[in-house]
């Protein structure tokens, strides 16, 4: 990578985002220590591998101009990270082991939540930043207790123990002489884990109430999130478990990844000592598992927008390092397949829902299958056989076959193929902007991510 293509680590003082300062009353001049970031925003696109980003580049491209356009990430490319876990059997990582590496700097087995191979809890960067007097936040579109966000604030021998993980995520840790909640701001899905019910549906453990007693605000829809100016500590849970994918989302009920990121930054940046924020675009991974190209483009697009928003903050603040990376790639997406020198990811614009989201609707009791197909699969050249394959599978309530029939319609037209239903082992791109970015340059192990972030706390 030629040095000339790399954006300087520090924004120029005449930056175009000076209007941010009007809102925050900060001086419109960049300031602060240029080597050690006060704030760190770590953005993880789960499953967002290099080929997934390659397909997204075609998807986003303005085809009236020759060549492919730049992505927002491009000018901040720092290097790559190797994602392999330290599992006794498997040599491709899951999000648990990858989360532990990114959050603690320790390699572990697949399924672990920030414990090492001996199941001993390892300190996370979020915990270290909290103990250094900074504020901490987690944003995700999965349930917050899912492997990646959990890895930053919980310790468990198994990612499956989501109830115990929720309890861990609201615990207090020692900060100076007092005990404080480990995470100050949490936005994502997962009411069911933070308000645990017994078999009869009665709440038996209310962790939300616990946080409210500690002064947290609690928000459950987009309007409440955007209007919440009450407390600098907040929990926002917008779905019983995972949130919907971006294009399947009801924007009144569930905020976008960008809206959650912006609100988290707004709250966390009130701490003059700084903050650590982890933002996960959780579901490129799930789209990859489902081999759902529409879902993949939807989720990378949502992540891209959130990245640009975080970047805007960093460019005006000059004390903030923004890192964007994937924890691993998912789905083995081939950007072009067969004998054709062609790939057309833009065809997903004919889909009005993700393949996974549409499948759930098609196999639901009482589904109006014909209308669902008409409204959501809008290829003019859809053949009778393609349509019938979806109808037959949906009528049989066969989830796998319904999804496969929809995938096929899109993949044939996009000319893509999928080599895996799970994760793949290649390295991932790492992007970084702001003070400290030079530590991420080159080919690194994913444990280096945490070690770099820890190092900024050393005086
Ligand atoms: Zn996965």
UniProtKB/TrEMBL annotation:
Mg(2+) binds at residues 46, 146, 148, 280. This is Alkaline phosphatase. The keyword Glycoprotein does not apply. Keywords: Magnesium, Metal-binding, Phosphoprotein, Zinc. The active site is at residue 95. Its cofactor is Mg(2+); Zn(2+). Belongs to the alkaline phosphatase family. The keyword Protein biosynthesis does not apply. Zn(2+) binds at residues 46, 285, 289, 327-328, 423. Residues 1-18 have a biased composition (Polar residues). One of its GO terms (molecular function) is alkaline phosphatase activity. Residues 1-32 are annotated as: Disordered. Binds 1 Mg(2+) ion. Binds 2 Zn(2+) ions. PANTHER family: ALKALINE PHOSPHATASE (PTHR11596:SF5). Gene3D superfamilies: 1.10.60.40, Alkaline Phosphatase, subunit A.
């Amino acid at each position: 990578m030629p040095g000339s293509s790399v954006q300087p680590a520090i924004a120029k003082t005449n930056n175009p985002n000076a209007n941010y300062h009007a809102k925050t009353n900060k001086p419109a001049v960049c300031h602060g220590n240029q080597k050690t970031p006060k704030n760190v925003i770590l953005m993880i696109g789960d499953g967002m591998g290099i080929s997934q980003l390659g397909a997204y580049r075609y998807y986003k491209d303005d085809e009236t101009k020759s060549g492919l356009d730049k992505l927002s990430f491009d000018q901040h490319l720092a290097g790559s990270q190797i994602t392999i876990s330290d599992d006794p059997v498997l040599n491709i990582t899951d999000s648990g082991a990858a989360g532990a590496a990114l959050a603690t700097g320790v390699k572990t087995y697949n399924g672990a939540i920030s414990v090492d191979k001996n199941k001993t809890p390892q300190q996370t960067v979020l915990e270290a930043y909290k103990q250094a007097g900074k504020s901490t936040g987690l944003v995700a579109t999965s349930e917050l207790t899912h492997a990646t966000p959990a890895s930053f604030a919980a310790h468990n021998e198994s990612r499956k123990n989501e109830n115990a993980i929720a309890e861990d995520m609201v615990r207090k840790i020692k900060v100076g002489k007092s005990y404080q909640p480990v995470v100050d701001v949490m936005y994502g899905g997962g009411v069911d884990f933070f308000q645990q019910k017994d078999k009869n549906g009665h709440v038996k453990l209310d962790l939300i109430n616990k946080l409210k007693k500690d002064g947290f605000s609690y928000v459950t829809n987009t309007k409440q999130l955007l209007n919440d100016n009450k407390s600098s500590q907040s929990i926002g849970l917008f779905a019983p478990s995972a949130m919907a994918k971006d294009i399947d989302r009801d924007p009144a009920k569930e905020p976008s990844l960008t809206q959650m990121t912006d609100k988290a930054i707004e709250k966390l940046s009130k701490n003059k000592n700084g903050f650590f924020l982890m933002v996960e675009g959780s579901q490129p991974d799930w789209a990859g598992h489902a081999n759902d190209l529409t879902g993949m483009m939807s989720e990378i697009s949502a992540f891209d927008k959130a990245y640009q928003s975080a970047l805007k903050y960093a460019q005006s603040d000059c004390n903030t390092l923004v890192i964007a990376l994937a924890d691993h790639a998912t789905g083995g997406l081939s950007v072009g397949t067969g004998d054709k020198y062609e790939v057309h990811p833009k065809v997903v614009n004919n889909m009005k829902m993700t393949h996974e989201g549409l499948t759930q609707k098609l196999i639901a009791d009482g589904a109006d299958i014909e209308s669902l197909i008409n409204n959501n699969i809008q290829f003019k050249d859809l053949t009778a056989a393609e349509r019938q394959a979806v109808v037959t599978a949906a009528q049989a309530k066969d989830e796998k076959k319904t999804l496969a029939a929809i995938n096929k319609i899109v993949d044939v037209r996009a000319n893509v193929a999928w080599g895996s239903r799970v994760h793949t082992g290649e390295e991932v791109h790492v992007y970084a902007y702001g003070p400290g970015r030079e530590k991420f340059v080159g080919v690194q192990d994913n444990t280096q991510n945490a070690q770099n972030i820890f190092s900024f706390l050393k005086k």
